[in-house]
Each structure stands twice: as C-alpha cells, then as structure tokens.
Amino acid sequence: MERPPCVSIFLVLCVFIQSSANGQSPGLEPVGRRSRVVETKEALQETETRFLLFKEETDKGCQIRLNHPDTLEQCGFNSSLPLVMIIHGWSVDGFLENWIGQMVAALKSQLAQTVNVGLADWLTLAYRHYTVAVRNTRLVGQEVAALIQWLEESAQFSRSKVHLIGYSLGAHVSGFAGSYMGGKHKIGRITGLDAAGPLFEGSSPSDRLSPDDANFVDAIHTFTREHMGLSVGIKQPIAHYDFYPNGGYFQPGCHFLELYKHITKHGLYAITKTIKCSHERSVHLFIDSLLHPSRQSTAYQCGDMGSFSQGLCLSCQKGRCNTMGYHIRQERQGKKHKRLFLVTRPQSPFKVYHYQFKIQFINQLKKPTEPTFTMTLLGTKEENQKITITLDEEITSNKTYSFLITLDVDIGELIMIKFKWENGAVWTNVWNTVQTIIPWSQEPLYSGLVVKTIKVKAGETQQRMTFCSENTDGLQLHPSQEKTFVRCDVNSTKLKRKIR
Ligand SMILES: *[C@@H]1O[C@H](CO)[C@@H](O)[C@H](O)[C@H]1NC(C)=O
Ligand SMILES: *[C@@H]1O[C@H](CO)[C@@H](O)[C@H](O)[C@H]1NC(C)=O
Ligand SMILES: *[C@@H]1O[C@H](CO)[C@@H](O)[C@H](O)[C@H]1NC(C)=O
User: What positions does the entry give for Ca(2+) binding (predicted)?
Assistant: First the structure.
C-alpha cells in the first residue's frame, strides 16, 4: 500500500465511472441530458423519494406523501413556517448517515424561529453505481419540485420559504429541484455542502447546482484536492457565495497520517472514512453555525488561498466578507460568484480569529537571514502564548512582510506584542562563519536586524493598529532576546489608560 490512500479511492471512482460507461452507454456525454423522459407534474402520482418531516429533534421522521393532504396534518406540517429540507448524497452502504440526525436536531433546537424540518430520503436511487446515482439526481430533483408545487397548491405554502440543504450529490439534486420549479418565482435558498465534483465539474450551469436555481445560493467547498483529474467535491464556484475553508482542498484534522491510525482500527473501510472526513466537514461546519450562534465564522473574499495566507484579504468593505453557514447575510451584489476564504480549527467550534501582521524589517546584515520568530500577543481579554512564524523567504534587505495569523480564542483588543528571534543558535553559527571569512573589525557587533513597525489588521473587528518598540533605543533584534512592542498609533495613550 505505497500509493497514497486518497489516490486509491479515486481509482475506485474512476473504475465506477468507466465501468458503467462501458456497460451502459457509448460514452460520457453530459449525464443530465440522458436522464429519463421528464415526467410531467400531472403524471407524477407517487415519488420514489421518501419525504420525511421531523416533529421532535430526535424522532425518526414522519412520511409525507404527495397528494395525501392527511399526511401533512399527521406529520405536523405548518405552512406558515419555512421548510428546511435536507438532501443526502451518494450512498456507499445504503444507510442514512449519522450527520443527518445531528443536523435535524440542530435545526429543531437551535433556531430562534421554528421551522419545518424535512429530509428527502432517496437512498434507493443513491445506493447505486456512482454514474447511475448521478443520473438519478435529476429525477429526485423533479420529485422534490413536485412536492413543493403540491405544497403550494394544497397548503398555500410559498416556495420562497423553502431552503434546501444538499450534501455531495444532494447539492445537485437541490439545484435540479430549483430549476424544475418553473414559473416566475424561485425557491428561497439552496445550500450546497461540498457538492459532488465527478461528472459535474466544468458542466454547464443547467447541469449542476448554480446561482440560477434559487433566490440565494451558498456553497461550502471542503474536499477539492485533485487526483488524476478528479476531485470529490466540485472546485469551481457554483453559488452566489462560495466558501473555501482552509483553501477547500482538504481539512485540518483529516490528514493522511490519521488514515494510518484508521486503517489499523477499521481496515480498508478507513479509506471511505478518510474521504468522508474532509468531504463531510462541510456538513459539520454548517451544523457548527447552528450550534454556536455566538461563534460565527467570518470568511473573506479573495483570489486564492496563497494571497489569503499572506493576510491580504481581510477586508469587509463593499460586502467582501460574510458569515459562513446557516446565518449567512443573504445579499446579492452583482452577478459574479464570490469566492470566500477562511481558516478553521480542526474541530467544533471551528471559528478562528484572523489577523494580518505586517512587519517592517530593516536588515543591515551582509548575509541574508531566514529567521524564525515567536510572538506573544496580549489582548484586553487574554494573552496568547508563543505563535511561531517562519518566513518562507530570506530577509535580504529592507522589506515589509505580510502574513496571516489565526487565533482560536478571542483575546479582545490587541494591546501589546512580545517579539522574539528564536533561531539564535543557527544565526550565531552564520555569524561566526561570516566573521571568520570576512574580518569585520569596523562593524558594530550586532549591526543586525531591526524591526521598525508591526502593523496589525484584525479581520473580525476590522480594526487597524500599529505597534512600535517600547524603547526607541536599541531597536536591533538580538537572537533569543525578547522585545516588547506597544501601540503607537493615535489612540494608544488613551488605550493604555483604559487598560491600567
Ligand atoms: C404555525 O406557526 C405559526 C407561527 O409560529 C403559529 O402561530 C401557529 O399556531 C402554527 N400553527 C399550528 C397549527 O401549529
Ligand atoms: C535600509 O534602511 C535603512 C534605514 O532606513 C538604510 O540606512 C539602509 O541603507 C537601507 N538599506 C537598503 C538596502 O535599502
Ligand atoms: C481613535 O478614537 C476615536 C474615538 O475613540 C475613534 O473615532 C477613531 O476611529 C480612533 N482612531 C483609530 C485610528 O483607532
């Protein structure tokens, strides 16, 4: 088993896709177009999909049936309240996954406004070859649309109150449901949780979830790391707001190292577990937004994760930031997709606090240096110990470095930074080497490295701050020596008084 396990599952996927292509159709034309003849609304009397409503947060669900108004009453459907409907994805074992119960419970117990909570159970159509399940997504979409149309006709329910939450293939089912609704008005909202990638990536908007399918569409992308041209979750933006936590490739706590632990414990089944970890993280991020109303994660519009990691995108101007999850600000500006990035913790609560640090160095060393620093941040609420920073590049001359720092806890307003040059030993060696090669008798011993200012921008509060060395003399940074930086922008004296 030398091959990375992740590749293996992609092989499995490839085999699925190819075998069914060989067996059933001459090629891979767009899947949606080949779906079975669209049944008209009138013809659809029964649905293959089971629609369940949940009265309590722990019940097993009560089945509502198309054209049976009595089932609506039995199951406690209240047409004056919104309907949140969960739609699961491809099934590898034919069972409903555990997260569904967790999401039902969170929707039932955590919202200020009561909502009808439903599930579209399409297991009989999802527990198939991947390509077959993909083909079934249109049919299930039609059935969901038929149900909503029937609710409009028989219960004076408004489609604008519908929120579909679809995971993996379920995200595309939601999209099809939205597009099959017809008429002038769209359903209220669709949330796509790591919408499936294979056979959807690069397809036209009508063949996958797209912003056209509802008044508001949001998507969370968590496992888009590509192998052999395939990624489990779709990479391209498909919503009004597309969130890419941790870049969207894979998620913290889901690392391959974990896989080996899983394999010893669960055997080969671990492979699906590892795939599920990052893929299903989208679901848990969403549930987290329901469970922790006071710890909502903010995400920021950015071109790519590289720029985000440099802290360059922490702006909320002109609607550039938004809240990830259920409580997203539902505003649409322009037609363009917005790609938003954020960092998360490896487990719930997932929220972190984002900061951009811009450190201005003046390097008078003759030799470039590649230092490691640690910082201790003191805030009005908490002190955060030792954050290690390794600059990716050498400090060669005068330069300002910008990078992203994230904290798990809210330290309040930042008031002091303790800054330390850590790899002194390494540096001393360099120093000795240089000294022996070039006799520097004229130079002061530590002409060294100077930190001029540290500028900080807090993403969550949008506050900007500037820090300077506490003593104006001795600006040089010496290996292993700690320097204290305090606020030196206009309001610093006022702030100091507030603290003391
Ligand atoms: C439906 O919800 C509304 C709004 O919360 C409430 O006033 C009404 O009593 C509910 N109807 C039933 C039958 O529970
Ligand atoms: C860096 O800045 C210092 C002080 O502003 C200046 O003396 C020095 O010449 C600068 N070095 C370079 C390479 O620009
Ligand atoms: C300084 O404080 C005033 C009033 O407290 C505030 O309006 C202003 O935005 C602050 N300026 C900065 C740079 O923080």
Answer: 208, 213
Ligand 1 atom 10 nearest Cα:
78
Q: Annotation-wise, does 213 bind a ligand?
A: yes
> Per residue, what are the HEC states of 113-150?
CCCEEEEEECHHHHCCCHHHHHHHHHHHHHHHHHHHHH
φ and ψ of 173, to 5 deg? -55, -45
Cα–Cα distance list, 32 to 136, 165, 239, 294, 305 (Å): 9, 20, 19, 41, 32
- List residues with catalytic annotation: 168, 194, 279
From 360, 361, 362, the mutation candidate for ligand 2 (largest count of ligand atoms within 8 A of CB) is 362
Kindly report the CATH number that applies to the domain delimited by 353-498. 2.60.60.20
Closest atom of ligand 2 to CA, residue 398: 1
CB of 76 within 6 A of ligand 1: the answer is no
Backbone angles phi and psi of 394, in degrees to 5: -75, 150
What is the Cα–Cα distance from 379 to 373, expressed in whole angstroms? Answer: 19
Please check whether the domain covering 5-342 is classified as CATH 1.10.940.10.
no
* Topology alike, domains 5-342 and 353-498: no
Who's near 339: CB < 8 A, 6+ residues apart?
Answer: 237, 242, 244, 301, 302, 303
| Distance from C-alpha of 88 to C-alpha of 103, rounded to nearest angstrom | 11
What is d(CA 475, CA 446) in angstroms, rounded to the nearest whole number?
A: 11
* All structural domains of the chain with their residue ranges: 5-342, 353-498
Q: Taking CB atoms and a 6 Å cutoff, what residues make up the pocket around ligand 3?
A: 489-491
Ligand that comes closest to the CA of residue 493 = 3
Pair of tokens at residue 180: 């099959």
Q: Reply yes or no: is the peptide bond before residue 349 cis, omega within 30 of 0.
A: yes
Mean pLDDT of successive 10-residue stretches along the chain, which has 500 residues: 40 40 34 42 76 88 94 95 97 92 95 95 96 96 96 94 98 98 94 96 96 96 86 94 96 71 60 79 97 97 94 94 97 83 96 94 64 86 79 71 91 90 56 40 52 91 91 63 83 53
Ligand nearest to the CA of 495: 3
> Does 81 sit in the ligand 1 pocket, CB within 6 Å?
yes
